[in-house]
Amino acid sequence: MEKQKKVLIVEDDMIISLVIENMVKELGHSVVGKATSGEEAINLALENKPDLVLMDIRLKGEMDGIQAVTAIKEKIDTSVIYLTGNSDRVNYDRAKETDFIDLITKPFTITDLTKSMEQV
């Protein structure tokens, strides 16, 4: 069995966030925080030092998920899986600069999440 991971979920849609949280827990991992904005994600990541950040690219507020990951990775070493409803080329090219594990397009299944998390 793989080691339990500490996961930070960054998703501004509360229902999707809850679904992701349930998937993470069903896979035997712990959720160390949930954020709805890039700024909140940075603060929670620095406070909780997660093994993995599940990051939505489009977030409410001034900062998107890619900008938040850039700021987080300047401070701590953590793995990132992007979650997005729109996997356009521009965002993918921007995300590549942040050394992420995977990019999952919504809607996704627990099988999709499992495959991505196994890479961490």
Helix-strand layout with pairing:
Layout: E1 6-10, H1 14-26, E2 30-35, H2 38-48, E3 52-56, H3 65-75, E4 79-84, H4 89-96, E5 102-105, H5 110-117
Parallel strand pairs: 1-2, 1-3, 3-4, 4-5
Helix pairs in contact: 2-3
Briefly characterize the structure.
With 120 residues, the chain is α/β, with parallel strands linked by helices. It contains 5 helices and 5 strands.
Describe this structure in words.
It is built from 5 helices and 5 strands. By secondary structure, it is α/β, with parallel strands linked by helices. The protein has one domain (6-113): Response regulator (Rossmann fold). A 5-stranded parallel beta sheet has the order 2-1-3-4-5, sandwiched between helices. Strand 4 (79-84), helix 4 (89-96) and strand 5 form a beta-alpha-beta unit. Helix 2 runs parallel beside helix 3. The chain is globular, with a radius of gyration of 13 Å.
List keywords for this structure.
five-stranded parallel sheet; alpha/beta; 22% strand; Rossmann fold; globular
Mean pLDDT over all positions? 94
Name the CATH superfamily assignment.
Response regulator
Distance between the termini: 14 Å
Strand element count:
5
Strand order, sheet with most strands: 2-1-3-4-5
Low-confidence stretches: none
- Counted up, domains total 1
- Protein structure class: alpha/beta
